[in-house]
Amino acid sequence: MRTSSNPAFRNLPTGGGYGNYAGFGQPNEAQQYGGYQGAPPTTGERPITIDDVVTKTAMTLGLTLVTGFVSAWLVLSGSVKPMTLVLPGLIVGLVVSLVIIFKRTPSAPLVLTYAAAEGLFLGGITGVFESIFPGIAWQAILGTLGVFAAMLVVYKTGAIRVTPRLTKWIIGATVGVVVLMLGNLVMSLFGVNMGLRDGGPIAIVFSLVVIGVAAFSFLLDFEAANEMIRSGVPAKWAWWVAFGLMTTLVWLYLEILRLLSYFQSGD
After folding, report:
1. Residue 20 has pLDDT above 50, yes or no
2. What is the pTM of this model?
3. Which alpha helices (DSSP H) does 104-200 contain, by range?
4. Which residues face 47 on adjacent strands?
């Protein structure tokens, strides 16, 4: 399995002895017995399928959207202060994500807890942006889903193939933008403006670069998920895939929301 820039997809199991199953990529012409090849699994666990990935990802994303809408509504209605939701959501989401990554074992309760926490966090932030720039929330949501769908089409059609060289480029770019973000944060604490987050031309270009890197990261996520499906790992690992995709979606959404605010601030 190729390395992914998403920490959730690193050090994954590479097979369960179950053969191959059609996944994100092209179907295997030698599929038999409903997609299985060789002997059935002896552990009692069936192999992961594309349906498992889609279902678990939809459940995770759906929970995030529901909690996010509620959180945003509470902020916009003035019922709660934004930080009352943003801070707990951020802390819980960060802690749970670290537990999931270092535990290296798929867990539906943990993934769903992460999704709910991220919903509170994103909803609180979205409520603040929506109060300042009416309509920006829907634009950011549609933009995020649009990028996700576009990259899925790109991956499925093979328009851009995930090669080792591309993988290294995306990982390097991801590390680069993260270092710049952290550097900008540290410098801002000392009153130094690097221009990466002030809404100016440099900030707009930087946000576009970050969005591009996040979008291409989906290709690595899809490839990692496809390798899991081909390897026939147990179906419970679909929760791990859902978690990995959610982390990229959250990153992309926040950056699109930020970029849209730059454009609307100049109106």
Report:
1. no
2. 0.82
3. 108-132, 136-157, 164-189
4. 234
